[in-house]
Write a structure and sequence with these properties.
alpha/beta
């Protein structure tokens, strides 16, 4: 259940749904805290006296020092990050190799997207964007400007873990509803399908699901072509006409969306519910390539780097918290890099550290709460909110701790909680930055823009700067780069892939 809630919490495409979830959460927390406080004969308001208490037998300075010692394993040295780059390079080479790919953890799927937008794409396109606990249908008109209207549809939990046919029937039903609402039934529109799960692509319109992630467990889909499943669901209805021109994941959409404005864009990155990256690679380096060898001699590679470390190559930086996260997840042993970086897991890592500090008497006078002990109760958004406080100001931290039933925290407690959050988020940003640096070094062009999207990157107050800091440390001398926020990348990017595919097919 934690992963489903966390996915909604950290996926920006579900903000409307998330607001409802947050309201319900706050109501439950309030009622829970009221009941607990009443039975203990306490009030829910922290007193000024409680905010100045000190840990018995230890000064605040000694406590802070001990907290930092415990958090030290979350802090990565430059040497460790360089080693991460070296190992990522090795794993990507395995993924691109024809003989080594079957055993590779980073699959490096060729996307069959070889051309970037030239900025002159025109027309109306549909985009379908599935990548979390909700999905969007979009109508996009490309021209001198990009106009767009969209609607978000929820994917109920029973559908997320039910039969695969049920998922695609649900998508087709929502797609048909969207088309009918806009009276588009008589128009055959090209559609770009963003399917943000690990897939082996066998063409621009054929992609077999390698494995589910992000809390999905629909039976009968892994190993099958998701475009064919969608076509089958649409044909079963018989009430809409759609031409699926391309299937892609959200990283490719992110890259394409930014490339429409910035022709130097060569890397796409997502740091949200999950994490993944894609980049433009020379065909000669892609042994897996089975397409034509005509111009352009390049193809976007979907790395699926969330699986980096699944073979044990990152064990040298993993912690007891990472091991617990993995052991208690829906996919033990899988997506280990993602579990150190993404919004689905960051909050839970911080919660585990905080619980340990409480148990050792270093936080809250050694007194926990029932809510804090619950798996998944410390949302990833709490990290962003706590780190948004100005130095010396703990307003957000106090509010969050009170939501968690911790009503007697001190300023010193808040400072230590913030340190935990900073260690978790800095590690995530540095690991993402190390990965981007490696991709920039592979591309080895003088100036490259990196398209970035995802709720962690968007909403954490320091994530961008932390990434820039780390990329700058690890890239080759002379390479210039910038991180560019992708505006609605996975939606507009899907339409752009469909537009480029339509343009190139018309030229043949």
């Amino acid at each position: 259940m934690m992963e489903i809630v966390a996915a909604a919490d950290s996926d920006e495409r579900g903000l409307s749904l998330l607001r409802v979830v947050n309201i319900l959460q706050r109501v439950v927390v309030f009622l829970h805290s009221f009941t607990v406080d009443k039975t203990r004969g306490q009030t829910s308001t922290s007193t000024s006296a409680s905010k100045t208490q000190q840990m018995p037998g230890m000064s605040e300075e000694e406590v802070a020092k001990k907290v930092k010692e415990i958090c030290q394993e979350l802090i990565l040295s430059q040497e460790a990050l360089k080693e991460v780059c070296d190992r990522l390079q090795e794993e990507i080479n395995k993924g691109l190799g024809k003989e080594s790919n079957p055993e590779a953890t980073i699959k490096c799927f060729p996307t069959y997207v070889r051309e970037l937008p030239n900025g002159k794409e025109k027309g109306r396109f549909l985009a379908l964007d599935l990548g979390g606990t909700n999905f969007r249908v979009l109508l996009i008109e490309l021209g001198d400007k990009c106009s767009m209207e969209s609607r978000i549809y929820a994917v109920p939990q029973p559908i997320m873990i039910g039969p695969g046919d049920g998922l695609f029937d649900h998508i087709a039903e929502c797609l048909a509803s969207f088309i009918k609402e806009r009276n588009l039934g008589t128009e055959l529109l090209p559609l770009g399908f963003t399917f943000s799960f690990p897939c082996k692509q066998e063409g621009l319109t054929k992609a077999r699901l390698a494995r589910w992630t992000k809390g999905f467990k629909c039976e009968g889909v892994e190993g099958r072509d998701v475009v064919e499943l969608l076509k089958k669901a649409i044909a079963k209805r018989g009430d809409v006409k759609i031409k699926i021109c391309a299937v892609l994941n959200d990283t490719t959409g992110t890259l394409m969306s930014c490339a429409w404005k910035n022709h130097n864009c060569r890397v796409g990155l997502i740091v949200g519910t999950g994490t993944n990256a894609c980049y433009m690679e020379k065909i000669e380096k892609v042994e897996l390539w089975d397409g034509d060898l005509e111009e352009p001699h390049q193809v976007i590679i979907n790395t699926e780097w969330g699986a980096f470390g699944d073979n044990g190559c990152l064990d040298f930086i993993r912690t007891e918290y990472d091991n617990t996260i993995d052991r208690e997840s829906l996919n033990p042993g899988k997506q280990l890099f993602e579990k150190m970086i993404s919004g689905m897991y960051m909050g839970e890592i911080a919660r585990q550290v905080i619980v340990r500090l409480v148990a050792e008497g270093l936080l809250f006078d050694g007194k926990s709460s029932d809510i804090l002990q619950e798996k998944g109760s410390f949302f990833t958004k709490y990290i962003s909110e706590i780190e948004s406080d100005e130095d010396g100001d703990f307003n957000n931290c106090y509010a969050i701790l009170e939501e968690l039933g911790l009503n007697n925290a001190t300023d010193a407690d808040c400072a230590n909680v913030r340190h935990v959050c900073e260690c978790v988020s800095r590690r995530a940003a540095y690991l993402a930055g190390a990965g981007v640096a490696l991709l920039l070094n592979r591309i080895n062009e003088e100036s490259v823009s990196v398209a970035v999207d995802g709720s962690v990157y968007r909403f954490h107050p320091h994530f961008h700067n932390l990434m820039v800091e780390q990329v700058s440390q690890l890239i080759k001398p002379g390479i210039k780069f910038d991180l560019m926020l992708s505006e609605d990348g996975s939606g507009r990017g899907a339409a752009l892939v469909a537009a480029v595919a339509s343009r190139t097919s018309a030229m043949r």
